[in-house]
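Protein Record: Sequence and Backbone Structure Tokens
======================================================
Tokens: labelled as protein backbone structure tokens, with as many entries as the chain has residues.
Question of interest: how does this chain fold, as expressed in backbone structure tokens?

___
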Amino acid sequence: MESNRSNSSNASLVFRLFDENPNSELGILDSPQRPLQAPPPCFEVLPSEVPTSVKYVTEPLNVGGVILLKGRVSTHEVFALGNSDLVPGKYEGGLKLWEGSLDLITALSCEIKVGKLSFAGQRVLELGCGHGLPGIFACQKGAASVHFQDFNAEVLQSLTIPNVNANVQKMPEHLATDTNKNNNLETRFFAGDWGEVHSILPYACKDETEASEMAQLNRGSSYDVILMAETVYSISALPNLCRLIKKCLCTPQGVVYMAAKKYYFGVGGGSRRFLSLVENDGTFSASLVSEVADGSSNVREVWKLLPK
């Protein structure tokens, strides 16, 4: 999620291809970090918690031949904010439909067509879901369980859950569901910070030691597929995101699909910065699935992470 703020003398960016300090996190861009705030509590958001006071309007969206319904809600109505992309610690941009979500769906569709991916019967987790369209796509493709996580409960209540409802109602009858559970599909919604939300996710390990032990088993209680789009914009959040993925993907057959901009100028994150962190950690191997350089924005990428 790109920042529109101009750089000042007190907030200059430093370009470095590699970091010469072996104890630091490798990356492409460095930028000053804001003081960390205490994260909000983590909790499950129930489908019944959709607010009636927020106006929700749907419109069709064609993503490479995949037709989805997306909602529009007012940032002012939900957060009492202006038309802002991001307010750190309060609103993480989930009401806006970011390009990476569409790139991710397109890439997933291609992976399915060439036989490299199947959602059938899988446990899926979408991190930083916002609209939740990649997770909804997984629902349409036969996933057994799709869990949606976002920093803001308000985003889940006012946008994600209504989007899920709007789309699953158009699914074939044998896949139709409400947002609770039936014999075919389970959808659940979780709010919280990446540093703590694993404690309430049903298929996450409590710590990295347990995750390492579960990785030695064939399956265990783990997610099979993790989806995330435009989640790697903040440098300070990247370590927690990496740790969360390791706690949630404890099966050797698991896979992570990540869509992001190559660099997020002004905030310092990006796909390459996160991949440097992943490479140093040594748990996953990464391969480029697709690249979008259409001139309308910074170069966008979709990456696949597999356990080593």
